[in-house]
Amino acid sequence: MQKKGADKILPSEPALRIIMRRLREIMAEPSDGQSRLDKIVRQIAGLMVAEVCSIYLKRQDGSLELFATEGLNPAAVHNTLLKRGEGLVGRCAELAVPINEPDAQNHPAFAYRPETGEEIYHSFLAVPVLRGGDVLGVLTVQNRTQKEYSDEDVEVMQTTAMVLAEHLVSGSVAGVNSGAELSRAVGHVIRGQPLSDGLALGHAVLHDMRVVVTEFKAEDPEAEASRLETAVEELKASIDEMLEQGDLNMAGEHREVFEAYRMFAHDRGWLRRMKEAIRRGMTAEAAVERVQNDTRSRMLRQADAYWHERLKDLDALSDRLLRVLSGGMRAPVAVADLPHDTVLVARSMGPADLLDYDRTRLRGLVLEDSGGQSHVAIVARALGIPAVGNARGVVDRVDQGNPIIVDAGSGEVHIRPSSGVIAAYGEKARFQARRHRKYRTLRDKPAVTKDGQRIELHLNAGLEVDVSQLKDSGADGIGLFRTELQFMVSATLPRLERQTQIYRTVVDRAAGKPVVFRTLDVGGDKALPYLRQPEEENPALGWRAIRLSLDRPGLLRTQVRALLRATAGQELRLLLPMVTTVGEVDMSRAVVERELTLMRRRGSPDPTKVLLGAMIEVPALLYDLDALCPRVDFLSVGSNDLLQYLFAADRNNNRVAGRYDPLSPAPLRALTVIVDAARRHNRPLSLCGEMAGHPLEAMALIGLGYRSISMAPASVGPVKSMVLSLDVAALERWLQPAIQSGEGNLRARLKRFAEEQAVEI
Ligand code: PEP
Ligand code: MG
Predict the structure, then answer these.
(1) What is the pLDDT of residue 185?
(2) Catalytic one among 167, 188, 207, 375?
(3) 484 lines ligand 1 (CB under 6 A)
(4) What's the mean per-residue pLDDT of the chain?
C-alpha cells in the first residue's frame, strides 16, 4: 500500500481505485453470495498488503458473526460469534467508528478466540460497515508487525465498507451460508399507524429517491471541489428563496424545518469536512455521503432527542445536495422502472405526489410523518392502497428495491423480512384474497338485513377515478364526493370550465346512481397551495369549510355554477360542510337560488331538482336540529369531525386521535339525537365518517336507526356481509338499554352480541 506524504494529494489512489474496480467485477460475476464475500476479503487483503482481512456481519441479536476471512482459520467462518460490544470488533460496531490499534493483542478490549488463530497478528484496523446510520457489520484488516495504519488506509477501508454496505442491502451478497441470518440481521419491523387497510407484499420504491452514489473515487479532486461548492451555493440559494417567498406553505413548522436546513447549509464545518473527503480522493457525491454517515453515527450516539431531530434535517439536506449534484432536484420515477409490486416509501407526501405514480403498480404506501387524516391518507384509501403512516425511521432503514411487507391492519412494516415472515404473510394475503372473492359475489345483492331492512351503502369519493369503484363495489351511490380533493391535487385553482368537466364526468360515470357533492371543505388542515390563508392558532376550529366559502363568495358561486351545469337535466344533491348555525344554510341556499335564477334567465339547461343538505359535524347544531331540519332536504353526519369536537380531541394528533371510543355512551347518544330529529322532520339521514366503514361500528349505527351510510370502497364488502347476517330488531331491543345501563364503553358488549347472533363483523 502506498503511503502519502503530508502534502501529496492522492498517493493511495491506485489501491482504492483498484479495490473499487475489483469489487465491481466481483459483483458482476455470476456467483453466490458467500463466494463473493470470500473474493472480496481476498482482494482487500492483497491490495492493503494485509495478512488478514475479515468481514463480520451483525445478527438480529446484535452479535457479530465472522462471515468471510482471508488469513484467519477458514473453519472459524460462521462459527466465531462475538457478543454485542465484545472485543475490538464489537467495540467498532457499537461505537460505529474506526478502531486502529498497533498492538491489538495487548489492548484491554481484545477478545481472544483460539479458533481463529489470530494471536499472531498485532496491528488491527476495523471500520464499521454503515448504511443509513445502521451498523451492518465490521470490516477488518490485520498485520503481524506492530504498526499504526495510515489515514489513507483508514480512508480506503471506510470507502470500501461503504460500497460493501450497498451490496449487502441490495441483496447481491445475500444467500451466503447463513443468508437467513444476514437478512434478519439487516431486517426491521417498524410499527406505525394504519392509514388505509389491507396487506401488501412488494418491493420498496423510495419517493424523493435518495441518489445512489456509484462513483467513489475522483480523477480530478479540484474539479470535484468546485462541483461541490457550486452545488452547495445552489442549495443555499434554493433554501433562501423558499424562505423568502414567505407564502402560506412556509408557515409554522415548515418554516422551522427550512430554517434548520439553512443553518446546516451555512455550516462551514459541514462544507469543510466534505472538502476534506474530496481532498482525500473522493467524488463530491461520495464526500456528501461519507460526511452524512460520519455525522449520523456521531449524532445517533447522543441520547438527546434534539440531535435525532437534527439528524433528520441533515439527512434531508444531504439528500437534496446529492440531487443537486446529480443534476435534478427530483428525479421522477419512470413508470417502466417501477416494480409491478411497488411499495412507496416516503418521509411525507402530498396527494398529488401519490397520484403521479402508476396505480396499477402500486401495492402499498409507507409514510414516516403522515397521520390518519392527512390528505395523502384519504387518497390512499380512495385508491384502495394499504398504507401505514407515522412509521418512524422507515426512510433511513429502507433501500430501493428492498422486499417489504405493509400490514396496514396492525400498522406493521416489515423491511427485508425473513423467508418465514414472507411465508406467513403470503398465507394471510391468500386468505384475504379468498375473502375478497366472497365479497365480490355479494356485489349485486342488495344490502338487506335478515329481518328485511334495506340499508343503503354508499361510497365516499373525491377523485374522478374513484367513481369507477361504484360499479366494482356494488354501492348504491356516492354518499360523499369530497370536491376539495380535486382542488388539492391541482397546481392551480380549477376554473369554472374545468370544474364543470370534472363534475360532469363524475355524474356520467355514476350512471344514474345518486351522487352527493359536498361544497369545498378547505381550510384547517386542508390547505390549497394557491389559496392564501392566514396562519391560525387552532386550524380545526378556524376559518374553514362553509365559513371560508361564505366569506369568499366568488369561490362558492363558481363551484355552485359548475355543479348546476354539470347536473343539468338531473338532480343535484349539494352538501354543506361544517355547518354551525342555520343562518349559514340560509346564506348558502341564497347563493344557489341566485345562480339558478341567472341560469334560467340565460336559458341554460338546469337540474330537475336541487337538494340542499347539511353536514352535522359541529356539536352546537345538535341543539338546533328542529330549526335546521325544515331548512334542508337531507342530513349527513360527518362523524370524523363531530367526534373530534365532541371529544375535544384533534383527529390529526396521534396522541389523542384514537383515545376516545365512538362506541361509548356519549357519542352514541349524540348520534341517536340526530336520528330522532331526522325522523321527526322526515328528512333522509346518512353518516359518512370513517366509522361507517368498520363492520362493528356500522352495526351499532344501524342499531341506532341509521339506514344509509357512506364509506371507502374497500369497506362495502365487509359491511354488506355484516348487514346480510344482522337481525336489526334484536339489535335495537338490546342497544338502547345497553347505552343507558351506565356500564360505559360498549365495544366489548357489541362484539359479544355479534358473536352470539352470528353477525359477520
Ligand atoms: C367527517 O368529518 O366525518 C367527514 C366525512 O368529512 P371529512 O373527513 O372530509 O372532514
Ligand atoms: Mg368533516
Answers:
(1) 44
(2) 375
(3) no
(4) 86
